[in-house]
Specification:
Length: about 120
Amino acid sequence: MTEYQIEGDTLQLTVEGMDKVWALRSHLSIPLRDITDVKADPERGAGALTGIKVGGSRIPGVLQAGTFLDSDGMVFWDVHRPGHAIVISLEHEHYKQLIIDVADPATAAQEISEAARRARG
């Protein structure tokens, strides 16, 4: 699971527990102005067996964590529970999307979307 926090004009993502090892990352910091869309998307979370693994782990039916290359470009994944997945679309960043599993997807998507809208003016 990934914890999120909005600090000023930045979205801070912290990869929790053993996911740090699986994903080969423990933290991501994203300017809110670079977020173009956020949505709770269990379908996309369930479609985890996509993309070419660049760095990270994929255990079918269990998890996908790390950096993967798919038709959208580089995507960061940290998903164990597809029903808790949110998709954060980005511009001007290394990753085109962040697909993470959070405790409350509807609330996370709403809070991050609102903060991104405010940051974009």
